[in-house]
Design brief:
Layout lengths: L2 H19 L3 H8 L5 H30 L8 H41 L4 H8 L6 H17 L3 H9 L5 H15 L4 H54 L9 H26 L14 H15 L12 H11 L7 H46 L5 H8 L7 H13 L4 H11 L3 H15 L5 H25 L4 H28 L5 H28 L9
Helix pairs in contact: 1-3, 2-4, 3-4, 4-5, 4-8, 4-9, 4-17, 4-18, 5-6, 6-7, 7-8, 8-9, 9-10, 9-18, 9-19, 10-20, 11-13, 13-14, 13-17, 13-18, 13-20, 14-15, 16-17, 17-18, 19-20
Length: about 550
C-alpha cells in the first residue's frame, strides 16, 4: 500500500476537512499536473500534519527541561508542514507555467513548420510526446493523446479540453486559436505562422521584464550581503578592539554569520535568480565534471596551507609558504590563511572555468552558424534540389564550428542512414539545447514533412527569431554582472581601510591589539564570500552557475 492509499483509507476524514478549507485545490492540482484526486491529496496533507503534530508533542516534552517555554515554539512545525503541502501545488503550477512559457515559442515553431509541410497540428503534437528537448510540452501532448485514445474524444475537442487547464497563457491561446480557426474553416498554416511570430515578440518583451526582476533581486543581494556584512564586520572589529564590548559580538557569532549566514544568503539569491531567469529544459553539465577532481585537491590545499595556522599539524608546505609570505611578498604573516584560501579556491574553480569558457565559445559560435546554414538551405531548396542533396552540397561550405557536425550529417545521408537515426545520434551527442532544437526542427521537417520550400522557409525564419531572442536575453542581463563585482570590491576595500585605521588607532592609544591573530580570523571569510559572489555574477550574466567559476 503506497502513501496515498494509506492516507486516504485512514485519514479521509482529515482530508475532507482540509479540502473544505481550500475549495480551489482541484483546480490547482490540474494546473500543476498532479495526478491525484483532491480528497486523496488533502488526506496526505492531513496525515503529514498529524504526524508532525505528534512529533512536536514528543519534542516539546523532551526539550522542556532544558529550554523551558522556548521549547513550545516547536508547535509551529505542524502549521509549517500544512502550509508547505497546501501551497506546493501553487509552486508546482508556477514552475510548470514558466517551463511551458519557455518552450512555447519553439513548440509553436515546430507545429508551424510541420503544418507548412502538410502535417496536421494534432499529428505534430503527437510527435512531441516523445521529444525530450521539450519535456513540459511532451506532458501536455500526452494528456491530449490520452483524451483521444482513452476517452474517445475527437482531436480538436481534446486540444480544447486540455488547453483550458494549462497554466501557460501563450500555449492556451495558441491551441484554442487553432481549434477555433479549424472550426470556422480558416487558413491553419497562416494562423500558426502569424501566431508563432507573435509569441516570439511577446517572449522578447517578457525577457525585458525578467531582466528588471533580476535587477531588483541583485539590488536586494547587494544590500543584504554588502551593507549588512560591513555593519557586522565593523561591530566585530570594534568589539575585538575594546575588551568590554567583546561580549556584544563574540567569535562564535562572527563565524556563524560569515561562514553560514552569508553563504546561505548567496545560495538563496542564486535560487531566486534561477527561479525568475529564462532557461532551457536541458543543461550542459560538462563544466561541472572537473569539480570531482578539483574539490579533493582544494581540500588538500586547505589542509596543508590554511589549517596549520589554526591547528598544530605537521605540514610540509607551511615553512615554504611562510617564506613566501614573509620574505618574498613582505607581508604580515596574518595574511597567510587568506592567501592560502584564495589559492585553494583558484585550484577549485580555475579548471572548471577553463572548460566552461571552451564549451560556451563552441556553442555560441555554432549557434549563429546553424541559423546561417538554415537560410542557405532554403535558397538551395528553391532550386529544385532534394533536401538531402541540399545538405550534401552545403556541407562543402564553411560554417565555422558547425561545419564538422554538418559534414557528419551529410556523410551519414550518403551512406543511406535514415534521418530519424541521424536525429537520434545528434540529440545524444549535442550538449547545447539551442543547437539541438534547431537540428530537431530541421531533420524532423525533412523526415516527416518532406522538407518543402515553404516549411524550410518557416524554419529559417523561426531560427532567426530564436537567435534574436537569445541575443536579446543575453544583452538584457549581461550588465548585471558588474553588481557583485562592485559589492565585493566595496566590502574588501572598506574592511581593509577600517582594519588599518583600527590598527593605527590601537598603536596610538596603546591598546593590546594583535593584527596577526585578528587577520587570521577576520580576513578568510571575506575572501570566501567574495568568491561566492562570483557565482552570483556568472548566474546573473549567463544563466549558468558554471559561468561564475571564472568570476
Amino acid at each position: 500500500m503506497d502513501i496515498s492509499s494509506f492516507a486516504y483509507s485512514k485519514f479521509d476524514w482529515l482530508g475532507k476537512l482540509f479540502l473544505a478549507l481550500d475549495r480551489d485545490l482541484p483546480k490547482k492540482l490540474n494546473s500543476a499536473n498532479i495526478k491525484l484526486h483532491p480528497e486523496v491529496y488533502a488526506s496526505i496533507i492531513g496525515l503529514f500534519t498529524l504526524v508532525s503534530f505528534i512529533i512536536s508533542i514528543i519534542l516539546s516534552i523532551v526539550l522542556y527541561p532544558f529550554y523551558g517555554l522556548y521549547s513550545l515554539t516547536i508547535y509551529a512545525l505542524p502549521f509549517i508542514v500544512y502550509l508547505l503541502m497546501r501551497f506546493y501545488p501553487n509552486v508546482a503550477a508556477s514552475n510548470r507555467a514558466s517551463g511551458l512559457e519557455a518552450e512555447v515559442p519553439y513548440a509553436a515553431a515546430y507545429i508551424s513548420v510541420m503544418a507548412a509541410g502538410g502535417i496536421s497540428p494534432y499529428k505534430a503534437l503527437d510527435r512531441l510526446r516523445n521529444v525530450k528537448l521539450m519535456p513540459r510540452m511532451a506532458d501536455a501532448a500526452k494528456e491530449i493523446k490520452m483524451q483521444v485514445e482513452a476517452f474517445g474524444m475527437d482531436p480538436v475537442s481534446a486540444i480544447t479540453d486540455v488547453s483550458s487547464n494549462l497554466p501557460s497563457k501563450s500555449l492556451k491561446d495558441l491551441l484554442l486559436g487553432y481549434a477555433s480557426t479549424l472550426n470556422v474553416g480558416g487558413d491553419i498554416v497562416h494562423y500558426l505562422q502569424r501566431k508563432t511570430f507573435t509569441i516570439f515578440e511577446e517572449r522578447i518583451k517578457q525577457i525585458k521584464v525578467i531582466a528588471d526582476r533580476i535587477t531588483m533581486i541583485m539590488e536586494g543581494y547587494i544590500i543584504l550581503t554588502v551593507l549588512l556584512a560591513l555593519g557586522i564586520y565593523v561591530i566585530f572589529i570594534v568589539s575585538r578592539l575594546f575588551p568590554a564590548g567583546a561580549t556584544l559580538f563574540n567569535v562564535g557569532t562572527f563565524i556563524m554569520f560569515s561562514y553560514f549566514f552569508l553563504p546561505f544568503t548567496t545560495g538563496f539569491f542564486l535560487f531566486l535568480i534561477d527561479a525568475v531567469s529564462p532557461k532551457y529544459p536541458t543543461a550542459d553539465w560538462r563544466p561541472y565534471k572537473p569539480l570531482f577532481i578539483t574539490i579533493p585537491l582544494a581540500i588538500l590545499v586547505i589542509y596543508l596551507i590554511v589549517v596549520p595556522y589554526y591547528v598544530p599539524i605537521d605540514s610540509p608546505l607551511k615553512a615554504p609558504f611562510d617564506h613566501l609570505i614573509l620574505d618574498i611578498l613582505k607581508l604580515n604573516i596574518g595574511l597567510a590563511p587568506s592567501i592560502g584560501l584564495a589559492i585553494a579556491l583558484l585550484v577549485l574553480f580555475l579548471p572548471p572555468a577553463i572548460f566552461d569558457i571552451k564549451y560556451s565559445r563552441e556553442t555560441a559560435a555554432m549557434s549563429e552558424e546553424i541559423v546561417n546554414f538554415l537560410r542557405d538551405l532554403v535558397e538551395a531548396r528553391k532550386t529544385g534540389l532534394s533536401p538531402e542533396k541540399c545538405i550534401e552540397t552545403l556541407s562543402e561550405r564553411d560554417y565555422g564550428r558547425f561545419s564538422k557536425k554538418l559534414k557528419v550529417i551529410a556523410n551519414k545521408l550518403k551512406w543511406g542512414i535514415p534521418l530519424s537515426k541521424i536525429l537520434e545520434d545528434e540529440m545524444r551527442e549535442s550538449k547545447n539545447w539551442f543547437i539541438s532544437i534547431n537540428l530537431f526542427l530541421l531533420i524532423d521537417s525533412i523526415d516527416v514533412g518532406g522538407g518543402t520550400p515553404e516549411a524550410l522557409e518557416a524554419l529559417a525564419s523561426f531560427g532567426e527569431e530564436i537567435l534574436l531572442l537569445e541575443k536579446e536575453k543575453k544583452s538584457s542581463v549581461k550588465p548585471l554582472v558588474l553588481i557583485p563585482y562592485i559589492g565585493g570590491l566595496i566590502t574588501l576595500f572598506t574592511a581593509a581601510v577600517f582594519l588599518s585605521f583600527v590598527q593605527n588607532l590601537a598603536a596610538l592609544a596603546k591598546f593590546a591589539f594583535s593584527f596577526t591573530s585578528f587577520a587570521n580570523l577576520f580576513l578568510p571569510p571575506i575572501v570566501f564570500n567574495a568568491v561566492l559572489s562570483g557565482l552570483v555574477a556568472g548566474k546573473t550574466s549567463s544563466e549558468r552557475v558554471s559561468a561564475g567559476f571564472l568570476h
